[in-house]
Design goal:
Elements: H1 19-40, H2 43-50, H3 54-61, H4 64-75, H5 88-103, H6 106-119, H7 123-138, H8 141-149, H9 159-176, H10 183-198, H11 211-225
Helix pairs in contact: 1-2, 1-4, 1-6, 4-7, 5-9, 5-10, 6-7, 9-10
């Protein structure tokens, strides 16, 4: 496979890059993002803390946004699989527990929280985050397939929508109302989603329109109406 010369830096894996170099750059990005936030993250910082020359960073990743996107891409290359406890209720509770374990602890939440904050300031980071969670939630397909085979979920249940629904109340407390989350909140979320699944709430395709698509549609409408955006 040849590298697409028309692709923007940071959107494809540069040829010849070693796993060690990529991991060192990723670690420097995570540290800088966690300690200084998106506004304070610079290529110079990543170069200093990764040991990779900034000229190389610019050439391979194009800048801070490319570094963020690649760090998310690398995070998505893990071997995570959805829980398999033998029951849909158990799987949903285990899934919610994983979210609570990550975002309920300040230390483990630092890096993903920093990425989410960066997504509000960089559209490329936002797209990278959307891609990460779309792929991650998509891995929950086997969880729902098993539930359908056991008669615990109706055919056509959307696995991605279910995974989003389990996480949503917990994310709301963490990022909107800024409240702590614990095991009780995780179980409440899982049981609410279980009831919704059994009621057929997630049967059928979900709206896959991204915020970026919505913004583009709005811009097009403004052009036709003459309204200022």
């Amino acid at each position: 496979m040849t590298r697409d010369s028309t692709a923007a830096p940071g959107t494809v894996r540069p040829s010849g890059r070693t796993a060690r170099t990529r991991a060192a750059v990723r670690d420097a990005v995570l540290t800088g993002l966690t300690d200084h936030g998106y506004p304070g993250l610079t290529v110079e910082y990543v170069a200093e803390h990764s040991g990779v020359h900034k000229t190389t960073l610019y050439r391979r990743w194009g800048g801070v946004d490319g570094l963020l996107v690649d760090a998310l891409d690398l995070a998505g290359e893990d071997s995570w699989t959805p829980p398999d406890t033998g029951t849909l209720e158990g799987d949903l509770c285990a899934l919610a527990d994983e979210v609570e374990a990550t975002f309920g602890d300040r230390a483990t939440a630092a890096a993903p929280t920093a990425f989410i904050a960066a997504a509000f300031q960089s559209e490329r980071a936002a797209q990278g985050l959307r891609d990460f969670y779309r792929e991650r939630f998509g891995r929950c397909g086997p969880l729902i397939s098993r539930a359908i085979e056991r008669g615990e979920a109706p055919p056509g249940t959307d696995a991605g929508a279910v995974a989003q629904a389990v996480s949503a109340p917990l994310f709301f407390r963490v990022f909107v109302t800024r409240e702590p989350i614990g095991a009780t909140h995780a179980r409440q979320s899982a049981l609410a989603v279980l009831a919704a699944i059994q009621a057929g709430a997630y049967v059928g395709s979900t709206d896959s329109t991204s915020p970026a698509d919505t913004a583009d549609d709005s811009s097009s409408a403004d052009e036709h109406t003459g309204r200022e955006p």
